[in-house]
Amino acid sequence: MTSNAEVIVAGAGPVGLLLACELALAGVRVTVLDRRTEAVPQSRALTMHGRTLEMLALRGVAGRFLARGMPIPSGHFAGLPTRLDFSACDSSCPFTLFIPQSVTEQLLEAWAGELGVDVRRGATVESTGQDEEGVWVAGTRAGTPFRLEARYLVGADGARSLVRRQAGIAFDGVPPTRTAMLGDVLLSTPPPGRALSLGNPAGGLMVVPLGGELYRVIVVDAQEIDVPVEVPVTLDGLAAATRRVAGDDFGMHAPQWLSRFSNQTCLAQSYRQGRIFLAGDAAHIHLPAGGQGMNVGMQDAMNLGWKLAGVLRGRAGASGMASLLDSYEAERHPVGAALYRNTLAQSALMMESFDPAGQALRATLSELMKGPELNATLAHELSGFGIRYRAALLPTPQGGEACARWTGRRVPDWPLRHADGTASSLYRHLAGGRWVALRVDESAQTGWQGALDGGWVDMVTAAVPGREAELEGVAVLVVRPDGYVDHAIAAVMPAQASLG
Ligand SMILES: Cc1cc2nc3c(=O)[nH]c(=O)nc-3n(C[C@H](O)[C@H](O)[C@H](O)COP(=O)(O)OP(=O)(O)OC[C@H]3O[C@@H](n4cnc5c(N)ncnc54)[C@H](O)[C@@H]3O)c2cc1C
């Protein structure tokens, strides 16, 4: 087996596939290797959060996912009765999308195919290495050994990541101490309203309709909370646990998938070692609470994809952007740390709170979540809308407070109005994966003399109706390919400003 790839991605899960799309969009040759001969039919994830959808909208493909899923305006934190309200989030996607992971992966693989990504299934990565010039990957496909070389390697190979282990990157955290059961089963007498979420001294239960008579049942059973994750789940065991928590097993039968998952929580010590990067479950694992692992992983993938492509295409420029690849870890490791913290907190609330004190804690927090401020804080954290990067990647002109507050901020898909009377939207200009210098003050001078290759930046001049107050004092917003503002340039420019 040979390949002329510039980047090898280990793992064709949602993270590896999205990363490959992002690279291919920029013309980077990428080969994805996955040991499975076919995609997994079961869907671990059912929730796609609004920020992930926004990212797909940034590349013009969100419609494909929206067409296959169902928007839901609220979500949960630790299964507490007070729902998280996403409708107040400033986004064109202020909801979560109910969409099975298998569908997400199918759509990503189809898109990867359109972009010319080389996905090779049945190819198991067994060892990896690097030197100053590049990386190598050795493994076996259909009984035949292979060795491939490339400039960079990304481990998107899941929780037990071989790439991570071979790179010697520590993956420390909290061992699995609690487990829960999952079943995709038919219910002959489903709960009223078809969906159910409850928590009580016997445990917790979620019932989610998957279509027809098929339902996902997740049970946290106080009596079986210590059962090791390797112990197989039986239909009888799931039904008995469901009865203990809900007083009814809803006539469950014909299981399509039975599994157990744990609260094991680990975070890679670093996301990069030289030419090798980690993304997704390879970098972080945790209790699947609040539907976050795949979403955060896909957001890792986008963050890394355009940066790696920019460096490979020589577009990052010699000055100012030398640390572009380091910024991946600088930006995404704190997001992984926040994920680590919020899922451990949810683990305590869902898997350790059966006694009266724990029940009281749950009730108190649920009550507090009725307050809009706490509700919005948690909704922004779980959806990914709340992520803000701390520092600009480009050297920035002095812009004062009006500009400083834009650094690292996500911009939604603003409608734009151009001087000739035409309309567009911001994300349409970002669909090609390039930077956009959005000139919101027409009297500001044009031209770009920043640290970026001119071919990587599109100048767009437009007013942003309804955002005038927010943009007061700003002439240009320099927006990164992933829809975050790198920096803003002031309306009254100092002499050393980077616009000519
Ligand atoms: C019960 C449950 C429910 C969940 N619900 C949600 C949810 O609603 N929302 C959410 O965001 N997340 C959810 N998650 C988490 C989500 O499923 C994962 O975070 C997501 O699958 C991670 O994607 P990935 O691409 O990083 O890894 P994976 O999906 O694990 O993909 C890794 C790929 O790498 C391949 N691979 C591994 N080793 C090798 C090797 N040596 N050589 C070649 N290929 C290799 C594997 O075959 C696999 O295809 C849930 C998880 C569970 C368990």
From TrEMBL:
GO terms for molecular function: monooxygenase activity. The keyword Zinc does not apply. Pfam families: FAD_binding_3, Rng_hyd_C. Its cofactor is FAD. Keywords: FAD, Flavoprotein, Monooxygenase, Oxidoreductase. Residues 5-342 form the FAD-binding domain. SUPFAM superfamilies: FAD/NAD(P)-binding domain. It comes from the Bacteria. The keyword Flavoprotein applies. This is Monooxygenase. The lineage of its organism: Bacteria, Pseudomonadati, Pseudomonadota, Betaproteobacteria, Burkholderiales.
